[in-house]
Specification:
The chain has 568 residues and is α+β, with helices and mostly antiparallel strands. A hairpin with a 5-residue loop joins strand 25 and strand 26 (517-527). The model has no long low-confidence stretch (mean pLDDT 92). It catalyses: tRNA(Phe) + L-phenylalanine + ATP = L-phenylalanyl-tRNA(Phe) + AMP + diphosphate + H(+).
Amino acid sequence: MPKFDVSKRDLERLVGREFTVEEWEDLFLYAKCELDDVWEENGEIYFKADSKDTNRPDLWSAEGIARQIRWALGFQRGLPEYEVEKSDVTVYVDERLKDIRPYGVYAIVEGLSLDEEALKQMINLQEKVALTFGRRRREVAIGIFDFDKVKPPIYYRAGEKTEKFVPLGFEEELTLEEILEKHEKGKEYGHLIKDKPYYPLLVDSEGKVLSMPPIINSETTGRVTTETRNVFVDVTGWDLNKVMLALNVVVTALAERGGKIRSVKVVYPDFEIETPDLTPKSFEVELDYVRKLAGLELSDGEIRDLLERMMYEVKLEDGKAKLLYPAFRDDIMHARDVLEDVLIAYGYNEIEPEEPKLAVQGRGDKFVEFEDAVRELMVGFGLQEVMTFNLTNREAQYEKMNLQYGRDYFNNPPAELVEIENPISPKWSALRNWLLPSLLDFLSQNTHEEYPQRLFEVGKATLIDEDRETKTVSESKLAVVLAQPRVTFTDAKEILDSVMRHLGFEYELEEVEHPSFIPGRVGTVIVNGQTIGVIGEIHPAVLEKWGIEMPVAGFELFLRPLYTEPYL
């Protein structure tokens, strides 16, 4: 979750009222943040804000927090309004960037009066949005420039790798290729464009380079100081909706500092747009739905009041609230998102807890008890239990296991993963569909520990099921790995025999070819004619990819086909 520093004095200047540090602890909750730390520096108090919502980049700066608090406290109500005046500035987008970094959107903000704190917040917001929302600049990268040093029209074009400019923080010119090799940001983000035939460049009508998205700004125009009054904002990426949202977040934050927003015409090879677009977005929610899920007896007027304090324009009609909300938000996807805003405005601490009145008694789920019994059984066999993350990535589940994505390996693993559309990190971009890669990952991180290492996990694998409403199903599985010198298929089979005997099942093994295992030492586990798992010795190529030098054998089973009552 994004964390950032804010000055107490700067926040209070933006809110328009002073508060005690204790009061600020509660106020941060309105902006979905927690006060993580407080310290004093040069006679000024600073806060460490810890944002708890990765879908609200508008709250990742002092401007956004202060705006949210002004509304929540009722200092302002309804929909925030930002006037956008047209400028005569045009940006032309090069068709050759289509497969390199296709979209750029732009705006001008004039009349700023920036002090050191305002500069810090501008840089912080720029970096946090690009890092978290923009997936480390892959999806969104932001540049802010001294507009008085720019001569329109501006061109977002494909640059030759031999072209030169002075990157931010340097004194000498470097070629675009040299920037990727020598500049700190080039080394960090160069992989995003290094293999492309051209590198993106933003230049003005005089050929002066503004930036090399998504790597670095120019020293000439990209250094904004307290003397800067007018800025040009540039956002580039792969998804037009995402870069538009990021632009809206940045320009409205600068408008909170007194800036006047002016739009820019962006000319693409096949269409034109004016940016930013701050047209409010709409949503509709049933008032009874809000009351029911909130568990509060709220009148229609009270719901309207709470929503207006969360920056909604509200029209009540036929038992519904027809809403308009700001263009810098993109997190309203369900009525529950609106309900959350109602509860934040109401105050979670103001809700009186009630003991539920139930006509039945609760009891443990029988299958969960079965899973616990299996765990006890495995501990009895001398294995150590581990618990690993359900989140993983395609590389771990397939590439490191010598597998081809899209091919079904006897459902161990299935052909495809359930992948996350907008993951925070590529490392956590999918839900695992088998457990053995997780156990090998665990072994790879514990090669310094003594052997043998005999591990098991009872955990969930998420599979695609088009017949279900959610299109997925979560299956319980048992996975075992044995890492020790001279471990064999027989060692894993001895444990499998004991498991099946204690659960009261007979099984068969059928030899198969599975790239994760050594040929001739792998088989599927069949119970009542159904394939429920796989067992074998892990292939040396797989062990090498995981950095494991010790031989490993193991197996993995679906537990649901082995569940009966009574069990064990």
